[in-house]
Every structure is written in structure tokens, then in C-alpha cells.
Predict the 3D structure of the following.
Amino acid sequence: MTLEQLRTFLWVARLGGIRRAALQMNVSQPAVSNRIALLEADLGTPLLDRSRKGVSLTKQGVMLSNHAEQIMQSVERIRAEVVPPENMTALLRLGVAETIVQSWLPAFLGRLRATHPKVTFEISVDISRNLREHLFERTLDLALMMGPVSDYSVENVMLPQFEMAWFRPIDMPRPDLTRVPVISYHRDTRPYHELRTELQQRYGNGIQMFSSSSLSAGFEMVAAGLGVGVFPRTLGQRMQPGRIAEFDPGWMPTPLSFSASYIGHPRDALAAKAADLAREVAEEHARLRVASQTARQAFGAKD
Amino acid sequence: MTLEQLRTFLWVARLGGIRRAALQMNVSQPAVSNRIALLEADLGTPLLDRSRKGVSLTKQGVMLSNHAEQIMQSVERIRAEVVPPENMTALLRLGVAETIVQSWLPAFLGRLRATHPKVTFEISVDISRNLREHLFERTLDLALMMGPVSDYSVENVMLPQFEMAWFRPIDMPRPDLTRVPVISYHRDTRPYHELRTELQQRYGNGIQMFSSSSLSAGFEMVAAGLGVGVFPRTLGQRMQPGRIAEFDPGWMPTPLSFSASYIGHPRDALAAKAADLAREVAEEHARLRVASQTARQAFGAKD
DNA sequence: AGAGGTTACGGGCAGCGTAAGGATC
DNA sequence: GATCCTTACGCTGCCCGTAACCTCT
């Protein structure tokens, strides 16, 4: 019996197929077949029922999987507790929503890199819907996205919310929402849809909306006078300083709720640690923003 | 990280030396060295402190050993619960006191062989003192011996006691203990010493004792008229039928207490199972003996 | 026919034992 | 110098991937 055999067996059990496990583990399908065969020979009992399409566990297979899960949990704990963070060598496939990229992602990566210098990153920026999908496909280890993901298999660490604000071009003092386009997030995102619903309720169907999958492009459009924007307040403070200004049409969209989400089963200790660090950094960032915002408001009042 | 590395690490930790672990595991000493080195490289942290004679665990080593113990416990449970007994292939090094050999060992081996046909035995018959020693040296997996062994590392399953009885040659109606030798167990056993002390207290130093490391030889000596014997009652009933008889000099030695003892750490599931089976068989055997003895007494009374 | 699993087979490399080389008492 | 561990170095054998084969729907 080897850990590799047990790990392989668990993937076969979880995914319900040798083929799928092989794909997941980046090895050939016969290799997986062989590992299972060796494990069965070692234990002297069949573990898989190969009668139907794919495979299912035998009674012994079920018992084994329980104990094997325990073992893998202990292994994870070893990797998390015994290995000093600065010697952790791993790959963290990180999915990030653009709002995060534009706010505290650099700070987060810096901190993570400082404590875990040997961990390599693979960062993909995408809309939360796709990130969630990749998380389920297990092609992402951790997603910093609009959340939480309400699925039993996913662990969510809640992050500070982002308050939304209206932005106008600096030379458009009193925008009329029924006449200028409203620019916001990508069409397939939740804030876009909430905004659209709200706008329709308030102003009817005449509202024109532009969506941008790039936040900086969205801000650029506002700055260029193409329309008004609905974006997180903290982003507006630095994306186009001097070219845009906040305004208040009388109502605000609901704040954006974010989470650091990762698959809980099998648990990835690094992802869990990184998620906690993300919360830490994000909360610091939120405090700083509030402080600087207060300062700015104070300054603005004087101005 | 492999199970073999963890298992090796635990032996090194337990025995406090790479050399000792290698000896225990029947591999070369550099092989153990290398396994530890690989494990340390994998975890990116030293696990052993090699400054002094032998080795001691670092802080990380202690943490690892806790988790590794957990893992090995799970592995043991797999071997015990998932593997069907009839497919268990293992070596059970069994140490047996001769009293057991002469009473229920055959029945025990038969039952064990029936439930665990693929387990091979290595049986050594010796006096309990030596069996205990070999248990500590880990050259025995299970000892059926006079017990219990009062050491924190040893698990004891208590077995039925053996009542002692006095035996005389059939043609020596009223033996005089001050004039005929008393024959019993080997000189280095507890019953021999208890008997000797008791005899000295009752009859003074004039008593002559013969000891035999072989029970059948002891009985043979009694049958041949060399002296009287003190042996378990149930054995006398069949060792020399017709040539010896019980008699009562007015007092009886204390019964012999037996146990099935095995090392509890690391736990050997097969040894534990076998110990339970031993208790079962021994208790059945005791019940049968009592029954046949009652029958015989009834017959004797009629005779 | 195609999806999913097993068997067959050559090749690479992980890990073993032997033997020699430090370090520490 | 004795004891204990590490390093060096061939060699074996395990396990992988490729390819062909089997077996269901």
C-alpha cells in the first residue's frame, strides 16, 4: 500500500471512473488501472465494481475510502503544519475577479510571496461566473470572486464588501440617466443584472447600458465622456483621478459581496491559508480606504 | 512523501537511531538514512537532530510523528477491517509457554488457521521470562505466556487460569514430601520459585526439587517413580493416564495466571485479533475441561 | 462505433545494498 | 578508535506510457 495508491483510489471513487481520475491526476489511464489493481491485490479484495459504465465502490471500497480520507487529511495537515511556509513549494492556481485585481490583489500577492516565496502562482482574471465553473472543474485552487459559492463542496471565506458609487465625467455636472448610457460590469455578472433590473424599475426600458469586461476600460469610457459609471467607490478614487467625479442620482446599488472560495474536499491547505491571508489583506485595505476616504472628504469639505 | 518514509521515520523516532531502525526493518542503514533524507527534502525542513549520539527529533519532527502515528493507525485499521481475514497474508511470530502448548494451542492454531488461512506462523516455545524479553525486542508479535506483562507498551488479554495439582506415581500411595523429590517447572519460572518458597516455609530446607523445562519430561519423571509433581490439573489428566494419580498433601499452589500479550505501539491488528481468539479458545477449553472433570469425578465416586 | 477498462511490453529512474568517507565522543 | 551517520556508485526491479485488445451499451 502506498499513499499514491490511496490518493488514486480516492480520485477514482470521487470521480466515479478510472479514466476521469487519470485525467485529473495527469497520468495515463492504464497507470491508474494498475495502481488500483495493485491496491486490490495488496488488500486481497476487490474495491471497484466494474460491471456498469464507469465504476462504483464495493463494500470494502467504501470502508477503504473512509480510512483513506482520514489518511489524506493527516497528510494535508503535515504539509500545512510541519512544512515551514517559506519552504512550501507548490502551485497555486488563482482565479481573480477584476475588482480585486484593481484593488488589493497586488498587496495580497506581495504578502503571499513574502511568506511563501517558493510557491508559484498561475493567475487568471475572469468574471466570477467562469471562475466558479473552473473551481468546480478543479482547474482553479482558489477564487477571489463575487461570492459566496453556495455548494456543499466549496469553502467560502467572506471578504469585505465593496460599496458602489456613481461616477460621471468631470465636465458633466448633472447627468440625466435617461439620456446618457450607464456603464458597468460585464453583461454576465451579477452587479450588471441587478443594476439593469433596478434601472428598468426606476426609469423604464429606455435606459441604455454599456458593459465592459475591463474595469479600467469602463472607467476610461466614463472619463472620455461616453456615459456615467457604476463601480466600486474605492476604485474610482484612483482609476481616473481628476477626470471623473462621484455623483448621487438619489439611490445606490447594493454593495458587492466577495469571497475567497476553494474546494473543501479534498482540502487544500495552501488554498485555505491563502484565503485567510486574502481576508486579512482585504480588511486592511478596506480600513485604509475608509481612512483615506475620510481624509479626502475632510479635505473636500474644506475645498 | 510515501508511507514507507513515514513508517521508517516513526521507527527512527521510536528507537532513537537510524541504525536501530534499519535493524528493526531489515534494510541497510543507508537505506533508512536515505528515506529520512528524502522525507526531509520533501517537507523542506530537518526532522532529526544529529548533533549527539544517535538522533533526536526536531520540533517539526515531533509534529510529524504525531500525524504519522495517526496515519499508521488508519493503515492498521484498513488492514484489519477492509481486508477479509481469509485473504490476510502476514507472518505471526508466536511465542508460547509450554503449558499452553500442552493444552489448547492446537485448538487455537486450528481456529486461527481456519479464519486466516494465508497467515503463516513462526512458533517458539520457551519459558515466559524469555518470551517477555523477545516481545520487548520485537522478535515476537504475540506471546501466550504467564502474565500479564506490566509494562505500558504491552497489551494483555487475560486468559483462564490453570489450577495446580499434585501428582504421584500410581504405585506410591502416600508420598512423603520430605523424602521424595518434587518435580515442577523450569528453574527460571515463577511457579517454580513460588513452589520452592512455599516448600521451604512448610518443610524446611531439606526438600529436594527437580525442575524440567519440558512438561512431558516432568510427567514422565513422575510416572517413572522419580518423585511427585506439581503441574496444572488439566494436563495430568491426559499426559500419563493410568501411570500417575492426584493426591492431596494438604495444600495447593496458587493457580497459574496466563495472558495473551502483544506490543500495543505500534499496534498489530493481527496480533490483537489472535489474542482475542486465544482467549475465546482458552475459555472454551476451560469449560470443556471442567465438564469432563466433573464427569470423571462422578465416575470416580461411583468407582 | 465509441466509451471505458484491461493486458502486453519496452524503457527510465527510484531506491536498494556494498563500500568508503566524515564527525563526534 | 569506536560508534553512528552520510556519501558514492553500480544495479535491480517497479511503474510509467504506448499500443493493442476486450466488453459493454
